Amino acid sequence: MEAGPRGEAQVTPALDGFLLRGRATPTPRQLAEVGVRADSLTEVTAVEFLHTMARESYDVLVLSLVGGGVQAMLHGLKRVWEDREQRPVVVTGYVGVVYEKLADGLLLRHGADLVLANSRQDAERFRAVYDGVGADSSAVTEVALPFLGGAKYTGEHDPYTVVFAAQPSVPESRKDRTYLLNRLVQHARLHPEREVLLKLRSKPGEHTTHIEELPYQKLAQRLGELPPNFRLVYGNMGEVLDRTDLLVTVSSTAALESLHRRIPTVVLTDLGVREVLGNHHFVGSGCLASWDQLDAGHRPTPDADWVGRQGVAADGSYETAFDAARERIAKLLRQPGGLPPLTPYYTPATAPGYLPGILARHHLGPDGTPLPGAPAHDKEPGPVRQIVRRAARGAYRHGVQRVAPVIRRMGEL
Are 262 and 227 in contact (CB under 8 A)? Predict the structure, then answer.
């Protein structure tokens, strides 16, 4: 969650960051990779965040959360701002490829002033979902993928570098992940003149939005001696793409970053073209291929029309892709009399069997009011409490990553 303070005389906006405490709270290493430095950064519970929003005044609030978190914050903010004449412009959206839970994720984000769509195709789909349920679709604003950039690919590096962009939850099974890892290692052995990199999202113990129960790092340890031209790498994806000659993935958003820079890009078909994998999103892209084809030297040619609809802005229009969002925010900030109350589609009347559970996970009642017993927000936790919190989070992540998969496997026996 991010916010910028209100103040017309301010030339350089200040940026306050709030990290929602939970299993996916970013680590310092992950935050450093973002490349944006906040003027202040505070780890908070949902109730603590709402308490701050009730006190402070901001121009723009960006909700960078999963759908349920966005919905809870929208209802909580509606409640704490109900007596305010001025409130911030609230922005949300998606970071990457939207290939699953389209209706669910969109309706959980409904109620924000801007719902950012990363491509022309997404903008059309988002409006169709909102219009189809009778919800206001005017908040949908077409932009481009928010993390694109870097130099255009101009030719092969020395050594020629193949990068496999791993995903934390796709594919899910040990069998499929081991298969992909074996094929990547096999490619390194078949092409000793190439550098073959396995690009990982998270180090063991770290999480992103999706939980990774079978990290490739651990699977690789069981393969024994690996070829000298095969390496595991972390860090910023853009920096890895700077030296990439062929980007390979199942369905990672890294494929769109790569296409934006016109790097040869392959979306694997080895495990099928299936909705559960997300690679169905790339049907028509010209990028679908198998490891057998790659081992034989295949280099794909992307379809220009498909790429043009995906928000990758390979035609050089990226610099203006966010103008519409900027103009909409500026217009809302100038709106006479301030902005109307937030009006999410989900209410206790439209979703009485769904919404209360979403709000309760963040210690909020059906009307967005903090529930009795919600975490206190009147003071900063002391050093002992902070240590206990860190230890508890580490234990929780260990349980999610190590213990829970074992219990599930035992249950299948």
Answer: no
* 3-state helix vs strand vs coil in the chain, percent to 5: 35, 15, 50
Please state, in angstroms and rounded to a whole number, the distance separating the CA atoms of residues 219 and 226.
12
pLDDT in tens, the chain (413 residues): 667 655 444 457 899 999 998 766 777 767 776 767 889 999 999 999 999 999 999 999 999 999 999 999 999 999 999 999 899 999 999 877 787 889 999 999 999 999 999 988 899 999 999 999 999 999 999 998 877 888 899 999 999 999 999 998 899 999 999 999 999 999 999 999 999 999 997 665 555 544 556 889 999 999 989 999 999 999 889 999 999 999 999 999 899 999 999 999 999 999 999 999 999 999 999 999 999 999 999 999 999 989 888 878 766 678 888 999 999 999 999 999 899 999 999 999 999 999 999 999 999 999 999 998 776 544 555 565 556 555 555 554 545 445 555 444 444 44
Whether 47 contacts 22, CB under 8 Å: no
How many other CB atoms are there within 10 angstroms of residue 358's CB atom? 19
